[in-house]
Amino acid sequence: MKVLRRTLRLTWQASPWITLLVAALVAFQSVAVALLAQSQRWLVDAAGLGTVGGLLAAAALGAVAYTASTAGRTVLHSLALELVLRVDILVNDEILGLVAGLPGVEHLEHPEHLDRIFLLRRGSRTLAQLAFGLSATVAGVISIALSVWLLVAVDPRLALLAPLALLPLWINSRTLRGLRDAEKEAARHGRLEEMLHRMCTDAGTAKELRVSGAHAAIDEEAAKAWDRYATLISRARVRASSWNALGWICFSAGYLLVLALTADLAARGLATLGDAVLVLVLGARLRGQIQEVVEQIGRVIHTGQVTEHYTWLHDYAAAHGPKGDKQPVSGGITFENVTFAYPGSKAPVLRDVSFHLRRGSVVALVGVNGAGKTTLVKLLTGMYEPASGTIKVDGQDLAATDLAAWRQRTTAAFQDFVKFQLPVRHAVGIGSLPRMDHVEEAIHAAGADFVERLPNGVDTQLGSLFDGVDLSQGQWQRLALARALMRDKPEVLILDEPTAALDPAAEHDLYERFTTTTGTVGEGITVLVSHRFSTVRMADHIIVVADGTIAEQGSHEELMARNGPYAQLFRIQAAAYSGDNC
Ligand SMILES: Nc1ncnc2c1ncn2[C@@H]1O[C@H](COP(=O)(O)OP(=O)(O)OP(=O)(O)O)[C@@H](O)[C@H]1O
User: Fold this and answer.
1) Do residues 164 and 250 make contact, with C-beta atoms less than 8 angstroms apart?
2) Which GO CC terms are listed, alphabetically (predicted)?
3) Strands (DSSP E) along 102-219, which ranges?
4) Has this prediction a pTM greater than 0.90?
5) 578: alpha, beta or left, given left = phi > 0 and alpha = psi -120 to 50?
6) Torsions phi, psi for 129 (to 5 deg)
7) Radius of gyration over alpha carbons of the chain, in Å?
8) Which regions of the chain carry the CATH code 1.20.1560.10?
9) Contact 369 CB / ligand 1 (< 6 Å)
């Protein structure tokens, strides 16, 4: 009901006038068949009796009903198409808004949630048809009821056709349920095929795949996934059509029986010729009417699956949306006994982690690959919530604060940055759209001065998709950094290996710049993740992460004096760089 109300609201919002016109035409369609059959009955009876007035009235009624029905049907078809198209756009906008507006990213990583979003986006049109489909179904049922009523008036036994007409309807609802289950089961294969296909056609991944020669194998895997998807769906369809055919055979046998009964009644003088014509016309039309209602019900039931996901998305967005209007105040951040496991995985990636990030400090997270550094950063930016323990910002639980407001006070640059194929100004500016005027400043702060030498400076189009300039990996990375630096005086600046593509000297120089020129110094907290100890040693506080726990923490000097894992890693790297870079 909630979904119906929502889609009705969207339908009205799409166009009140078209909605009213469609409703009026649908209402007329519900009586059109009965009017037409009745006019033909009167026409034949009046002809038999030779009453000219009756003949003319019946012909006039038939002509009006026929014209209004056929013309109305054509107009209804095009108006309904237009309305559904408009509602589809609104539904898609709503879905994208809900998916993109969620503060965390859990819904984008959980396979079950991804399946739901996949099915929802594929079925958005069905959802857009819900209001129209339901009203057409009600009109169809009324139309069938009127036909049955007219048949019963000739002879009550003719009502036999009604239960027989319901049989295909019932079978169809059962088979559609089977189809719905098959679609649910197949969604994962469909999504896999889409991903593999994209891997082979996307310029970024295609390069690596060509070099490794794996594209043929991936192509094959994509074909297999598509086969699995198509097989599940087509098997369910064949099953459904066989059952539906059986239903129609039963109805056709009933129709023949009704015709034989009417012929008998006419022969015995218990029915007029007009009655026989009425039965003939209505019986033949009943098949079409039922077919239409079956199809409409099919669409509505199919919508049931999509509406389930639609409701889920709304509920999920309501449960995971902004939690309150309290804003974190300036101060330190404390992780208290934080344990965390990624969705769908039972093994915790972080176990009982506790540490404090002091306001105004530069904190470095170090550790081997997979230790849990990026996961800590994701928790800090509110992408995920801890399974147990709390993250407190000035004593306030981050899970209970408005994440959107928190994000306004933080900024981050990640190792897996995005290459936005836009003009430089926009590729950097989307870091903080209200501060578009500060793009040049951010570019300078990120050391991306190469932009000045591009053909159109900050207005140069980037990427090959739109005949733009392509950049080196290090240059793309500097732009990603500039994007992160767009935020005005962030309380927390997170740099998660955003300089991996830069040489060690450039990274050292850049971090020196960040820690002395950005707005966070003295006011905010800078969290940097790096494998380069020449950078790490600049931090005030170093946290060594090992296997999801904190192995040790302290200043560079303290950790060197302790001679623990940090000191060992530092010496190994210092030896590798012959002391030059560390
Ligand atoms: N989205 C995810 N879903 C499930 N497991 C994940 C996910 N992201 C990371 N992990 C797992 O969490 C662990 C910690 O990963 P994390 O990215 O935090 O490590 P890291 O210390 O940042 O590593 P690196 O130095 O390689 O960037 C790894 O074992 C990884 O496999």
Assistant:
1) yes
2) plasma membrane
3) none
4) no
5) left
6) -85, -5
7) 35
8) 2-319
9) yes
Closest CA to 415 of 463, 465, 369: 369
Does the CB atom of residue 346 touch ligand 1 within 6 A?
A: no
- For residues 46 and 272, the answer to whether their CB atoms sit within 8 Å is no
Beta-bridge partner residues of 335:
355, 391
Beta carbons of 482 and 446 less than 8 angstroms apart: yes
- Residue-level pLDDT at 239: 92
Ligand 1 nearest-atom number relative to CA 531: 25
Q: Which residue's CA lies nearest to atom 25 of ligand 1? A: 369
ipTM score:
0.96
Q: Does the Cβ of 348 fall within 6 Å of ligand 1?
A: no
**342 with 108: CB under 8 angstroms?**
no
State residue 514's pLDDT score: 66
How many Å lie between the centroid of ligand 1 and the Cα of residue 199?
A: 22
Q: Which letter, b or e, does each residue of 115-124 get, where b requires 16 or more Cβ atoms within 10 Å of its Cβ?
A: bbbbbbeebb
The CB of 109 under 6 Å from ligand 1? The reply is yes
Could you tell me which of 31, 29, 38 has the C-alpha nearest to residue 282? 38
Are 265 and 275 in contact by the 8 Å Cβ rule? The answer is yes
- CATH number, domain 330-335+354-385+399-409+493-582, options 3.90.1150.10, 3.10.20.740, 3.40.50.300, 3.30.300.30: 3.40.50.300
Distance 349 CA to ligand 1 centre (A): 8
If pLDDT is split at 50, 70 and 90, which confidence band does 118 have? confident
Q: By alpha-carbon position, which residue is closest to atom 3 of ligand 1?
A: 342
Residue 213 predicted with pLDDT over 80: no
**Residues carrying CATH 3.40.50.300, the chain:** 330-335+354-385+399-409+493-582
Give me the mean pLDDT over the 244-251 stretch. 87
What DSSP character marks residue 446? T
Q: Find the 558 Cα to ligand 1 centroid distance in Å.
A: 28
Nearest atom, ligand 1, residue 376 CA: 18
Residue 126: band (very low, low, confident or very high) from pLDDT cuts 50, 70, 90: confident
- CATH class belonging to 2-319: mainly alpha
* 86 or 575, greater pLDDT: 86
Atom of ligand 1 nearest to the CA of 375: 18
Single out the residue of 180, 207, 170, 139 nearest to residue 308, CA to CA.
Answer: 180
Q: Atom 27, ligand 1: which residue's CA is nearest? A: 369
Most confident of 75-79, 135-139, 179-183, 336-340: 336-340
Can you tell me the mean pLDDT for 111-119?
76
pLDDT tens, residue by residue, 38-60: 888 888 888 777 777 878 888 88
